Amino acid sequence: MIIPESTNVLVVGGGNAAMCAAITAREQGAAVVVLEHAGQEMRGGNSRHTRNLRAAHDQPVFEQTGAYSEDEFWQDLIKVTEGHTNEHLARLMIRESPHLLEWLHARGIRYQSALRGTLSLDRTNAFFLGGGKALLNAEYRTAARLGVQIFYASEVTDLEIDATGFRSATVVREGETHNIQAKAVVIASGGFQANEAWMKEAWGEAADNFIIRGTPFNRGTMLKNLMTKGAEIVGEPKQCHAVAIDARAPKYDGGIASRVDCVCFSIVVNREGRRFYDEGEDFWPKRYAIWGRLVAQQAGQIAYAIIDSKVVEQFMPSMFPEIRADSITALANEIGVDAASLEATVTGFNAAVRPGKYDPRELDGCSTADIQPNKSNWALKLDTPPYYAYPLRPGITFTYLGLKVDENAQVSFGPDRSVDNVFAAGEVMAGNILGQGYCAGTGMTIGTVFGRIAGENAACRRT
Amino acid sequence: MQTDVTETPEESLAEARRTMTICNACRYCEGLCATFQSMSLQRAFSNGDLNYLANLCHNCTACFHGCQYAPPHEFNVNVPRALASLRLESYKEFAWPGFMARLFERNGLVMSLVTAFSLAFVLSLTIVWNEPSALLAVYDKPGAFYQVISHNMMIAVAGGTFGFSVLAIAMGVRRFYRDTCRVPGRTVSIKAFLAAARDAATLKYLKGGHGEGCNSTVDNFSNLRAVFHHFTMWGFLLCFAATCAATVYDYFMGIPAPYAYSSVPVVLGSLGGIGLLIGPVGLFVLKIWSDPRPANITQFGMDYAFIVLLFLISLTGILLLVLRETSAMALILIVHLGFVLALFVTLPYSKFVHSVYRVASLLRFEVEKAE
């Protein structure tokens, strides 16, 4: 198949947001071309690593239990972003979210009950049967059936935008450069976290120690291209979804399996052997997304979660073996932390642990007193060898710096330009809603809602 | 990626363990089937656990096509292939008597040779016991089959081989169930037994987790494999029922074969025979067309040999029914019995054993789930 010279709607990217836009535009009757940078086997951007989306609902629907009101969704979003959100767009997303499950189901996506260890997410989130790649397979199957033209290993390198709008895109495929014209373009090509130079610009040398949890293809090429062409930008370059993950994960694409779930039952020390944050502040699913940033602030961007044998079976198993030793000193030597310093930290911590009734299933109030920082829950003495350590590094999911859009998912070029045929969906515009923080499953909600809006509006531009 | 080198048992175990360890940290496939649900109850995997999980897997490949870590990802997770490879090793490990395990190596060749020898054996027997002209005679009296091969001879050979095979399979599955049980001495409730029987009878886990079937290509599902497997499985069971009914006719009612078209053995056998004509052909074609990536190519010889043998037994059985009053009867009977003998002899050392280990695994799953 050869990339055509022109089409109605051009979709840049191949993840969930891109496919939702492509399917919607095609269902409106537009001719649609999807250009995915990755090859077929690694297609789908970060959506490949997802597993659920957050959706409001009045009553149990599919595998979602109970009810989750639009207001509760809004409150959850306010809490994590601390108000750093565009309320108009956020409320639009929440309002649209109840329709997503049925819409996706009609296009082949199936659901499963919440996985074990996900802490009641089954009420707020719908889990895809088989995970994000199974979702993508269904979307690609539906798109192909509808007649969307999909090109893999096709990188868009430049967009031609004149005074009145988008005209064409430059595509590199198998070493050949093509030009494709379209009446409208949907940018759904993700953030820039896999662009090492850009990350370094934002974070300095620390970025060298970051692990990118998802696709290596999200290099922000379109984001930068549109920035230089006058598109308005939202968010800060340092804002992102950052998780503490196992330091032994590969540089890219480690996904969920690189998780370390023992932090709240552990003490976490930095390279100097000192604790730096309350490990037991809340349940891990509510705290994992702040720990990436915390580890990023430590020297060498490394930390170690240390547990003893009492709690070794109380969290999700890891794909990596635990580092094990029979004494704190030996463990310190194993992980390359100063033994005297770690000994002092553990001794101080143990002395500060107050008696209480330990219960990993609830906020048990087992805490420390008079120590900096205190641990609020699940504080147990480290006194039962063998001891175990998991090394932690910041794992970046996606960056929040993004294209500013309106309720039509239309990219804003400021009041002086009448560009009305550039749309954006997914992580490349998630920063409109996520100024900071993260609420599990929101990324897929943003992608699906704004993908559909972008596809619908882009299809209208064809005449 | 796909290798053509046969793995050692240790390599199969190590790869299954590595794969399950990654899967257990991910768990996105938990809703797909019993294998992942059972996996997530454990933190570490003994050899027994892995053998059990390998036999619990129905090889629908949904987890491969939905896997974020499937090749070319560097984690190279390929659950169906890893478990298929170990499954074959488990057939060897639990074979009884132990030295017969070698028959699972190059099983396609073994099956072909045994079939050839069985045909030669039945033919020789017939010639030794009869006038050569008997092979082309027309028989129209009751007990016609036994004029070609004596009743006692048929019972001795068939009963002897089948009896030994049942014993060998029973010994194997007994040891499999004990070896793979983490907590020995668990009682099997009737409820668990019925649930396992139901899941086996409906092929619950051969439907991709969503009921839409196995992946026929990357993005498409089809229930054809389950359908053809149903034809094969029920065809086999109906033929077995026909044999049992014939035994009752012979021993308890004193009516010798061949039986009337409307008799219970012929009706059951004909229905089963039709199943075994359709099912194996469908499975054969689907296997040729299947995506090689999640498959364990080295065991295809075993798979093909078994379904081809079933097809040939059925084909000759139906020909025998149609032509039993002609001069072709004796020869067709000899060929049919040759194929049946090959099946009886190889039963514990062929693809057939997947069914008993699968049912045993489903049973263990239900017992575990009830706790």
Secondary structure elements and their pairing?
The complex is a heterodimer of chains A (463) and B (371).
Chain A: E1 6-12, H1 16-27, E2 32-35, E3 52-54, H2 70-81, H3 87-96, H4 100-105, E4 111-112, H5 121-124, E5 125-128, H6 132-146, E6 149-151, E7 154-162, E8 165-173, E9 176-187, H7 196-203, E10 211-212, H8 221-228, E11 233-234, E12 240-246, E13 267-270, H9 284-296, E14 303-308, E15 323-325, H10 328-335, H11 339-352, E16 387-399, E17 402-403, E18 422-424, H12 442-460
Chain B: H1 9-26, H2 34-39, H3 47-56, H4 62-65, H5 79-93, H6 107-129, H7 144-148, H8 151-180, H9 190-202, E1 214-217, E2 220-222, H10 224-252, H11 264-289, H12 300-323, H13 329-346, H14 353-369
Antiparallel strand pairs in B: 1-2
Helix pairs in contact in B: 1-3, 1-5, 3-5, 3-8, 3-14, 6-12, 6-13, 8-13, 8-14, 9-14, 10-11, 11-12, 12-13
Attribute tags:
heterodimer, A: 463 residues, alpha/beta, FAD/NAD(P)-binding domain, Flavocytochrome C3, Chain A, domain 1, elongated, B: 371 residues, 2 domains
What does this entry look like structurally?
The complex is a heterodimer of chains A (463) and B (371). By secondary structure, chain A is an alpha/beta fold. Chain A folds into 2 domains: 6-237 and 400-460, FAD/NAD(P)-binding domain; 242-395, Succinate dehydrogenase/fumarate reductase flavoprotein, catalytic domain (Flavocytochrome C3, Chain A, domain 1, Alpha-Beta Complex), CATH 3.90.700. Helix content of chain A is 28%, strand content 21%. Chain A has 12 helices and 18 strands. In chain A, the strands form 4 sheets. In chain A, strands 1, 2, 6, 7, 8, 9 and 18 form a 7-stranded mixed sheet that branches. In chain A, strand 1 (6-12), helix 1 (16-27) and strand 2 form a beta-alpha-beta unit. Chain A starts with 5 loop residues before the first strand and ends with a helix. In chain A, 56% of the residues are buried. Chain B has helices spanning 9-26, 34-39, 47-56, 62-65, 79-93, 107-129, 144-148, 151-180, 190-202, 224-252, 264-289, 300-323, 329-346, 353-369, and strands spanning 214-217, 220-222. Chain B is mostly helical. Helices cover 64% and strands 2% of the residues of chain B. Chain B is elongated and about 70 Å long. Chain B starts with 8 loop residues before the first helix and ends with a helix. Chain B has a two-stranded antiparallel sheet with strand order 1-2. In chain B, helix 1 packs across helix 3 and helix 8 (151-180) packs parallel to helix 13 (329-346). The longest helix of chain B is centred in the middle third of the chain and has 30 residues, at 151-180.
